[in-house]
């Protein structure tokens, strides 16, 4: 996620009881991820949008995670693309060919070489999937930060380059038991984990009235990540799903009915949220999260009903 990103975004997840049911599974995934991983060589190549072949497994390994910082996993860059003026998408796969197992909403850490040694930066896994599945190819997105150590490194990657990773991590996960209403609010690359959640939410909503509102906060139309996918998600069940897109700097020439000027938190009073039935997710810009969490708290939301994950920019090394 990207929202943010390394381009240097550090994750500052806050505890959430709603995601506690996933804790044991996360710890198991991290333990499994350490197996079979090894350190990668360096290598620097420029960005391009052509694709490298998926690494062929030599012994059909089982799906696993991405290792730990002590025993990181080696990933190969399969493809790269700019999906917004300042946002890079990286397609990645384990070099050993094993599928990557993670939960929708997880993030991973990538090792970034720097003048004072290696640093780690966190990125949401944006690849859509259902809980319990695995993917041979995963996507992460990174937003450019001027002067950012990770920006310079990641935006120069080419297919065939290798990275070291650890994970998956995070508490921005769907609970074991659904509420009546999900609020998914994000800014910039903070929308990436919600994209990953869409197939799981659709599966859970089959045959029942599960209400979902996605609220996107972006600077301009060019920065509206995955807008078509979120609109498609809403269009498949418009009775129970809504989308709002807030543009802080530049509106489309002809705004659609789901688009408005301003910041995402300014729309909270008009959503009809009830603390007893709503589980709110906030992801992305720390200022947005603090403002939205403050409003939700004043409206009667207990902390356990607000899941937060902040993306913090780091413009310099370290």
TrEMBL record:
<dbReference type="InterPro" id="IPR017927">
    <property type="entry name" value="FAD-bd_FR_type"/>
</dbReference>
<feature type="domain" description="FAD-binding FR-type">
    <location>
        <begin position="70"/>
        <end position="175"/>
    </location>
</feature>
<dbReference type="InterPro" id="IPR039261">
    <property type="entry name" value="FNR_nucleotide-bd"/>
</dbReference>
<dbReference type="InterPro" id="IPR017938">
    <property type="entry name" value="Riboflavin_synthase-like_b-brl"/>
</dbReference>
<dbReference type="InterPro" id="IPR001433">
    <property type="entry name" value="OxRdtase_FAD/NAD-bd"/>
</dbReference>
<dbReference type="Pfam" id="PF00970">
    <property type="entry name" value="FAD_binding_6"/>
</dbReference>
<dbReference type="Pfam" id="PF00175">
    <property type="entry name" value="NAD_binding_1"/>
</dbReference>
<protein>
    <submittedName>
        <fullName>Ferredoxin--NADP(+) reductase</fullName>
    </submittedName>
</protein>
<dbReference type="InterPro" id="IPR008333">
    <property type="entry name" value="Cbr1-like_FAD-bd_dom"/>
</dbReference>
<feature type="region of interest" description="Disordered">
    <location>
        <begin position="21"/>
        <end position="60"/>
    </location>
</feature>
<dbReference type="GO" id="GO:0016491">
    <property type="term" value="F:oxidoreductase activity"/>
</dbReference>
<dbReference type="InterPro" id="IPR050415">
    <property type="entry name" value="MRET"/>
</dbReference>
């Amino acid at each position: 996620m990207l929202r943010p990103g390394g381009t240097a975004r550090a994750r500052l997840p806050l505890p959430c009881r709603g995601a506690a049911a996933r804790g044991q599974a996360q710890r198991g995934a991290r333990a499994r991820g350490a197996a079979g991983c090894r350190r990668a060589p360096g290598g620097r190549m420029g960005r391009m949008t052509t694709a490298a072949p998926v690494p062929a497994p030599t012994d059909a390994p089982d799906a696993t995670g991405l290792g730990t910082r002590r025993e990181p996993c080696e990933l190969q860059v399969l493809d790269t693309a700019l999906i917004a003026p300042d946002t890079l998408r990286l397609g990645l796969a384990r070099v050993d060919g094993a599928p990557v197992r993670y939960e929708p909403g997880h993030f991973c850490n990538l090792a970034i070489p720097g003048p004072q040694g290696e640093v780690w930066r966190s990125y949401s896994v944006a690849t859509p999937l259902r809980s319990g599945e695995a993917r041979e190819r995963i996507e992460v997105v990174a937003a450019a930060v001027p002067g950012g150590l990770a920006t310079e490194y990641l935006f120069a990657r080419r297919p065939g380059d290798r990275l070291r990773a650890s994970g998956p991590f995070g508490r921005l996960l769907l609970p074991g038991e659904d509420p009546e209403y999900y609020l998914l609010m994000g800014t910039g690359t903070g929308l990436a984990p919600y994209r990953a959640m869409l197939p799981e939410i659709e599966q859970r909503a089959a045959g029942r009235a599960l209400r979902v509102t996605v609220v996107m906060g972006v600077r301009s139309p060019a920065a509206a990540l995955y807008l078509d996918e979120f609109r498609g998600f809403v269009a498949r069940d418009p009775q129970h799903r809504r989308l709002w897109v807030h543009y802080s700097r530049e509106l489309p020439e002809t705004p659609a009915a789901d688009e408005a000027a301003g910041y995402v938190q300014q729309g909270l009073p008009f959503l009809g949220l009830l603390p007893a039935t709503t589980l709110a997710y906030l992801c992305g810009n720390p200022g947005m999260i603090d403002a939205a969490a403050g409003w939700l708290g004043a409206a009667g939301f207990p902390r356990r009903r607000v899941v937060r994950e902040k993306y913090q920019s780091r413009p310099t090394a370290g």
